[in-house]
Amino acid sequence: MLPGEPWIGMAVALLIGLLVGLQREMVQQPSRAGLRDFLIASLTGGVCALVGDPLFTASILVVLVAVTLVCSWRGLTPESGMTTELALVAVFSLAFAAAYPPLAVSRPVVVSLAIVLAAALEAKRALDRFVHETITAQEFSDTIRFLAAIFVIYPILPRGAYGPYEFFEPRLVWLFVILVSSISFAGYFLRKFLGAAQGLRLTAALGALTSTTAVTAALASESREHPGHTRTYAAAAALANAIQFPRVWAIVAVVSPGLAARTWLPFATACLAGLVIYAVWSRDSPEPEAIGFAADNPFRLGPALKFGAAFSAILLLMKWTNATWGGAASSWSGALAGTLDVDSVAVSLSRMAVGGAVAETLAWWGIFTAMASNAVAKTAIAGSASRALGVRAGLAMGIMLAVAAGTWALAPHLA
After folding, report:
1. Do 265 and 407 contact (CB within 8 A), yes or no?
2. Shortest CA distance to 332 belongs to which of 305, 314, 310, 350?
3. Tell me: the pLDDT tens digits for 69-106?
């Protein structure tokens, strides 16, 4: 132990008590534990650390907990809690860790935890408002289910591949369910906290993180109510479908970094083309009242399971066509499946490209044709509202796809 080491440890311990004690002193009633109590608790924790006797430390901790419980019981009211008493025990523990010589290298972490503790205590009003006013019970429940899908269900799924052509891998399927669900989950809360209802542009862009088909359908529905704003709704549709390109590329990048490295430029130029179309069409166009997407749950198991089933079915279809007619057939099977779901096709072909079952060039064209067939379906949805909207939406998506294909064709070093 260095000569000044005990003093450094005790100084850090007292700093922790001072930091948390000041926060408690400023916000609570005088009858509750304050600055002096927290300094005493941190001093006691530091002394226990220097003594280094486990029995002595345990005895002091038991006494501290008993005293805080008694004091809390005597002053407890329906409006009060045990936050201060628990913070007192936490300060003792942090002070012990700060002054304990074998943990000297961990002092920056201990101080960081003390700052986090003080910040959490200080944020009481914001946290109460967040829990009681901002987050609904349904959103919290769905967040728990979303976390369970990641940390509970995924680890217990069996490893290995099953079925014809070994198309079904439970852990892999669930991993991609989590991936796509994460995009929808993030999009939901972005719309909620950024206030998507304040503008058509923000609503369309954030909604595209979940489903461009759903966005196009919502825009078509709204355009029936505002027939004089066809150009504006077509611009919003162009923006949403421009966002689809980086979203699909992000999925490809997670599954097949090599394929993503070869396809980033076509995806980027297509997105840029869509943004230019949006900028031109939305110029000087009055914006109607923003559409309000239905407040879907952040995480719904039904759509997630449907995606997993679609992914498995599409992967089986593509492996069968690849084994029967060769890799060139993947583009046609991708076009067929793309009318239902582009993400499933992107995941399936990217996975096959990683395994070498399909060349990266064929995987790219399969994803491209899937996006093209999906664009045809969305054009039909837009056209169901009005011919003008269908023409404009189809033109925008056609230009983006043409730019993507042209970029790939004019960059032979990528192919």
Report:
1. yes
2. 314
3. 776 666 555 445 567 777 778 888 888 888 888 877 77
Q: Which residue has the higher pLDDT, 296 or 238?
A: 238
CA distances from 189 to 142, 185, 196, 214 (A): 12, 7, 10, 17
Residue 274 exposed, middle or buried by CB count within 10 Å (0-12, 13-18, 19+):
buried
The tens digit of pLDDT for each residue in 334-354 reads 566 666 678 778 888 888 888
Token duo for residue 314 = 């599409």
Environment class of 53 (CB within 10 Å of its CB; exposed 0-12, middle 13-18, buried 19+)? exposed
Contacts with 207 (C-beta within 8 Å, 6 or more apart), sequence order: 187, 191, 196, 214, 215, 218, 240, 293
Is the CB of residue 400 less than 8 Å from the CB of residue 274?
yes
Give me the residue label for tokens 């080491």: 5
Q: Say which residues have a Cβ less than 8 Å from residue 190's Cβ, sequence separation at least 6.
A: 196, 206, 209
**12 bridge partner residues:** none
- pLDDT tens figures, 366-391: 889 889 988 988 898 888 888 999 99
Instruction: Provide the 8-state DSSP code for 33.
Output: -
The CA distances from residue 13 to 41, 134, 370, in Å, are 9, 36, 61
Cα angle 245-251-255, degrees, rounded to a multiple of 5: 140
Question: Comparing C-alpha atoms, which of 96, 98, 102, 100 is closest to residue 110?
Answer: 98
